[in-house]
Structures
1.
Amino acid sequence: MNRILALYSVLISLFAVISVFFIMLKLKNKISNDVNFKLDAMKDNIIHALTSAIDANDFYNEGHSARVADYAKEIARRLGKSEMEQKEIYFAALLHDIGKIRVPDEILKSDGDLSEREFDSIKLHSMIGYSIVQGVSENKNIEDAVKYHHERYDGEGYPIGLKGEQIPEYARIICVADSYDAMSSDRRFRKDIPQEFIKEKILQEKGRQFDPEIASVMLEMIEEDVDFKMRPKYSPIRKILVIDDDAICLKVTSYMLKKNPDYIVETASSGTEGLKYLENENFDLVLLDIEMPDMNGFETFAKLKKIKDVPVIFVTVDKDVDTIVRARACGVNYYLIKPFLSQELNEAIRNVFLQRGKF
């Protein structure tokens, strides 16, 4: 029940964010050029934050939506699309997987073959995404791109089985860009595929899964990418220390972090124990509880800073504004309220590493 309520809360939040985004689009023609420029930047940040939250639910997909959007926009440019069309395709590609917010984690993160029922559950994401975007966008091009990006040129795709140019062009573009990123990214069950094999696969599926003209543009992009730069930029291995006197919180936070193979996680049940770790080892980040019996988080933080210059995220049940202000004033990098979702934790860590120039 708690998981359902949490998911429902996230979905409402996402719907609200998207609503704000499309309201901004409607307002653009009524305001000055200077405000338009600022609105564009804000709108872009909102959509990227939204898609990052979706992708962050699975580290194997981190950055997936942004990469697909970049590839789709470049394909559109090479096809001679206008700047407005390129922008529409870009945002449609950013939102193409938004429906996965309703797909159970155990299915999305499955290591093995999916059952027919599980695969049917995944296939629903395009219709769910369409329903979410349709409610707020009033842009049929974006709505249809989200709905039909898994249709195949030969008519064997889903959700309806459209064929050839019955499939909206934006969806045909995103289909190629999405497939390319899936092949060029690591997955639980395999490593990324060498670019030469990706090229062969796209050639094989030209006219079958992919629109021939769009596939040709993708192949052109691959030919030009001699250094294989069109692929995820994986993060280096990072060491994270979690300091918390609550054994359950310590275990849950550690479990969330260990789902990412790029993190090495150590735990300490007190400030004193945590400081001993820091004296002997180097860490890239510390998650520090505030309310601990032997030495509270503020005291631990003050001593920690004398040992190492390492970013710190406070994790606490304390929602008091004065405590938050005090934490910011003493130089804590981020503040998380317990209990928090895995997505919140991943986004907090991402923001801290971005601030430090390590992402």
2.
Amino acid sequence: MKKTIVFLAFSFIAACAARQTPIPDPGSGAAKLFADKCGVCHSLPHPKRHTANQWEHMVTVMDKERDHRGVKPLSDDERVMILEYLKKHSR
């Protein structure tokens, strides 16, 4: 019985950890671009995680990390679109 409870608790925690918080306007082109480009290496952070100014810095840092990992950096248009999306939904 104890093993069953431990197994169920572990399964529940693992399922919750795998579930991502939905992002705003998930059907928009900007949200899809954000998911496609920024979800390559990690789970997507919710835009409310940072302020608009913080997102400016984070996108710059992450773009450098993409280059470091051998992933093509964002184009200027992609960068603008993602930043506009993040700033629109930031805290």
3.
Amino acid sequence: MSRVNFEQLLEAGVHFGHLKSKWNPAMAPYIFMERNGIHIIDLYKTVAKIDEAAEAMKNLAKAGRKILFVATKKQAKQVVADIATAINMPYVIERWPGGMLTNFPTIRKAVKKMSTIDKMATDGTFDNLSKREKLQITRQRAKLEKNLGSIADLNRLPSALFVVDVMKEHIAVREANRLGIPVFGMVDTNSDPSNVDFVIPANDDATKSVELILGALCKAVQEGLQEGKAERANKDDSEETESAPKRERKTRAKKSEETQAPPAEEIIREEPVEAENLSKE
């Protein structure tokens, strides 16, 4: 069963593309028709692509991998922030920091700086600073929180990237391509889908469109997280049940060793003694 249906996509305005004059010819396979100078996206293909992307994201979540959500355009920022937070995934909704993926260690240093400032506030270091120094550090902390606070828990490179408007987020897409990180993306008729691994042809300018598609993907990720958690729990239980018989077998083996007959070598050594005693008698 599809995660979204044709009617839901139609109602959310997912089918509206850009003006014909702004189209990218590479999007031709996903365009159904042109109406009043505007390209109409083939929603049957959108349904199929959403299901394909949802399954791939579900498998990533099931394996415990992180997916980084990226959307810096006004219409999608809050939607992405809410949904990514709900599934405990990192996201970027402010300006994309150049080199965030290709120069990840530097970004991690900036994130650690936030932790250092927080520690200063709790261990009494702040009390020894002047008013001006406190103000500068507080402003720096606020700036770091705004740009990097949403990726504070991202300790390693993400396993995948989800992008709303691949044209606007071209730097993020390029960095992911360079590192071989799979890219999931909502691609409108004015964009190039060739750099996106999982293309979702859709209107990336309407909030309802973004909300509907992200909602479907979010459910898939939640399913993956729950299945992964259940599998790990079952694995732990099976290991415990397997270890109990092993312990029992070891105990039985030890007891049998203690009660078994003496080795053959000891018996052979004792025989001459018995023969000698008999001869004396």
